Amino acid sequence: MSTRAAVVHDVPADRPGTAHPRKAGPTDLRLVPPALAVWATAAAMLHAPPGWTVAVVIASVLVAAVLLTARGRRLPARRGPTARARVTAHAVAATLLCAAAAAASAGLHGADVRRGPVPELAREYARAVAEVEVTADPRLTRPRVSGNHMAPVSVLIEADVRRVERAGAATRTTRAPVLLMIAPGDRKDTAPSADHRSSPWLTLLPSTRLRVEARFAPAMEGGDRFAAVLRVDGRDGPRAVGGPSAPQRLAGRLRGGLREATEDLSEDARALLPGLVVGDISRVTPELDQAFHETDLTHTLAVSGSNFTILLALLLGPPGLAQRAERRGLAPRAGISLRTTAVLGAALSLAFVVVCRPDPSVLRAAACGSVALLALATGRRRSLIPALATAVLLLVLYDPWLARSYGFLLSVLATGALLTVAPRWSEGLRRRGVPPRLAEALAAAGAAQALCAPVVAVLSARVSLVAIPCNLLAEAALAPATVLGFLALATAPVAMPLAKAVAWCASWPAEWIAQVARTGAALPGSGVDWPGSWAGAAALGAVTLVVLLVGRRLLRHPWWCAACALLLVLLVVQPRPLTRAVTGWPPPGWRMVMCDVGQGDALVLAAGGNTGVVVDAGPDPLLVDDCLRSLGVTRVPLVVLTHFHADHVAGLTGVLRGREVGGIGTTALEEPADQVAAVRRAATAAGVPLTRVAAGERRRAGDLTWEVLWPPPGGHPAMEGPNDASVAILVRTGNLRLLLLGDLEPPAQRALARSPAARDLAGVDVLKVAHHGSAYQDPGLVRLTAPRLALISTGEDNTYGHPARSTLAALRAGGAEVLRTDRDGALAVVPGAGGGGELEVARH
Residue 163 contacts by C-beta under 8 Å, 6 or more apart in sequence? Predict the structure, then answer.
């Protein structure tokens, strides 16, 4: 959602060109019912059978004709009830005709998904040769941990199939929307660990025609607007049979120039500037993207009406002077007449659409941005709602799939909030002494958040508590970053050194926005989990309404307002002493914590004060970072990665984030190669040295000591794969002994039980059960260790059956108490208060 739109207020009537507020009349809502009817009809009819579509169209047209004909026969034209009835009949008839048009458009677009040879081939999972036209920019799927490996990163390309050739059948011409899936790493000239961003498929421009050989498959969940998914072998690169159109070549050149101009900037600025200007988020890291989601700043990374609004404000002047005949923009300062300024605004709109791609999302942004254009041009608030309704009506008729788009819904809700709710809230705040500019900013951010939060909760199952302050803090930097970014975009093709200089200037506000997002997301109470359903959205809407009603009364009592603000700050910041007093976490004197990171491993060993040794990093940077922050760990002398499977190393960047890390110790077996490369990239970026650890090493950190038991320095026949090469550690902390086995499987476990170190393994206090409690355990090692406490790190409802019943039974038969993160959450081991080797476990 976006809060960067103009908030227009009534101004004193003595200003030039101002209509008296009382003469402005009520808000014109006549176009709202047709727009809503078009929206609802399109959403309902996209997958309706053709017969239903025809019936809805015919019925709507017939009823509209009856209403118009019946009212047309009435001769009296005088004012009064008859005239009002005639107006009502005309309004209903117009709404029905709009609904009929929406049904027809939705039926035609839905038919493209169902008819022709493409759906038939998808149902048969057939192979065929297709000629397709690219309709959107290619994008990469986000890295995702699946079990102990990373799911393959693929290039996704939206396209329209034009021709289909199948062996033994005639070539068929069609038009069907599809999604191409290409695995960049499958190219013949690409190493497994290569950066997927170098794939030639990512350089394709919309309107390019390709010839691809693919296996057709049905579109799965979330792909109802595609007739099929085409899985393409990408080893030989794309085969183009037709180049992109001239506008797309121009747009590609400008976008490429912006990317080149930002190449030498910091990582955050290099990623954000193309996103702020043209919606190019290909450089945004998953960690930064998650931070923007946590703070509800994702609208800044998408092409939205706010981009267009900022450009129009630069041309026409600030929104606060919208009702003046002369404005302070570039156009009036240059002596350009209002009519010429309007033409320039239209040209700017066209350029905006060309550079940012003329796909539905960009067209929606231009249409919503046109609302701000009308505000600046007319200064009449009553004209804005009809303009928004017109934009919704025309865009949904053009692309009925927008009726089912959450992005479109959020855009309309945010714009509607800024046009209806925000002005009233701003006026109320000004009456209570808030400065006008601050009142406008607070009202805009609050109104957009109030209306959009229920929809965001459906998408993310989370409610951000820092969205409004983060949007306010980012607001000051958005305009300069966007304007300077567009200037760099325009100058790059003709003067690259100048473009780089401008981009460097734009990097400062861009880095500020990134820092706001990171800081807000890092706060312990940045958000709360919320049911991700429409019932949850309704509940959040009710809670929001109650908060607004109570807040309105609280505004009359400054001391109560201050108390509530302080309570909210404490809830978001969650100072460690206060959190420990309320929740009891982390428990005083904790020695080891098994973090709850889902299906993976991450442990923290206390080394005194804010220092902790980390063993494995889990599959998710956010989860391990949250765990370390909750423990107050800011210094990590060593990170031990037992082996390179993704569920143990993919969260490494979360450990490195904002902490002093002395080094990273790894096993000697560097498999799988892609995860080894990812660990090396993360270590190099953080400036942390990588070392190999082997059996026999002894180290100390504070009062914590540990000995590496496995793997042997020269390797061992039992090391048949990454699991059996896991680093196994015996830890001594206080008077407790803890054995950490990584993911060792029976061959390595048996070898460890027969090694010279076995004499130290008898009767350990705590056992970190190997491989998430899988069934593959050596009974001899379990009997030898005879732990008092067995801890298992595993994900809730995982598909591997971890932990296995046989493993649980064997541990309990040996006298161990068994705890697991999927049911008990994070687990902290604490020496007993009485000494003598007792231990306690705290759950979180």
Answer: 130, 131, 171, 172, 173, 174
Strand partners, 700: 705
The DSSP H or E segment spanning 59 is helix 50-72
Assign 283 to helix, strand or coil: coil
Give the DSSP H or E segment for 419.
helix 406-431
Contact criterion met (CB below 8 Å) for 660 and 611: no
Sign of the CA dihedral running 194, 197, 203, 209: positive
Q: How far is CA 603 from the centre of its chain?
A: 27
Confidence of residue 322 (pLDDT cuts 50, 70, 90): very low
- Residues 405-456: tens digit of each pLDDT: 888 888 888 888 888 888 888 888 888 888 888 888 888 888 888 898 999 8
In the structure encoding, which two tokens stand for residue 667, read together?
Answer: 């096993």
Taking the C-alpha atoms of residue 132 and residue 141, their distance in angstroms, rounded to an integer, is: 21
Q: Which of 186-190, 266-270, 696-700 has the lowest mean pLDDT?
A: 186-190
Closest by CA position to 843, among listed 832, 833, 828, 831: 828
Distances in whole angstroms, Cα of residue 16 to Cα of each of 25, 151, 321: 19, 63, 10
> SS3 string of 5-54?
CCCCCCCCCCCCCCCCHHHCCCCCCCCHHHHHHHHHHHHHHCCCCHHHHH
In the chain, the percentage of residues whose pLDDT exceeds 70 is 85
Strands 839-843 and 827-831: antiparallel
How far is C-alpha 246 from the chain's CA centre?
32
Tell me how crowded residue 123 is: count the other CB atoms within 10 A of its CB.
Answer: 12
Three-class secondary structure of residue 206 per DSSP: coil
The amino acid sitting at 719 is M
Q: List 527's β-bridge partners, or say none.
A: 464
Under 8 Å between Cβ of 618 and 650: yes
Rg (CA), the chain: 31
Instruction: Give the 3-state secondary structure of 582-599.
Output: HHCCCCCCCCEEECCCCC
Q: Are 355 and 278 in contact (CB under 8 A)?
A: yes
Per the DSSP assignment, residues forming a β-bridge with 817 are 789
H or E element at residue 639: strand 639-641
Instruction: Tokens 């002493």: give the residue.
Output: 577
Q: Give the model's confidence band at 102: pLDDT under 50 very low, under 70 low, under 90 confident, else very high.
A: very high
User: Cα(694)–Cα(728) distance, rounded to whole angstroms?
Assistant: 9
Non-local (6+) Cβ contacts of 398 within 8 A are 105, 360, 363
Whole-number Cα distances in Å, 91 to 29, 30, 106, 353, 419: 11, 8, 22, 33, 23
- Burial of 546 by CB count in 10 Å (0-12 exposed, 13-18 middle, 19+ buried)? exposed
List of residues 6+ apart from 446 with CB closer than 8 A: 422, 425, 468
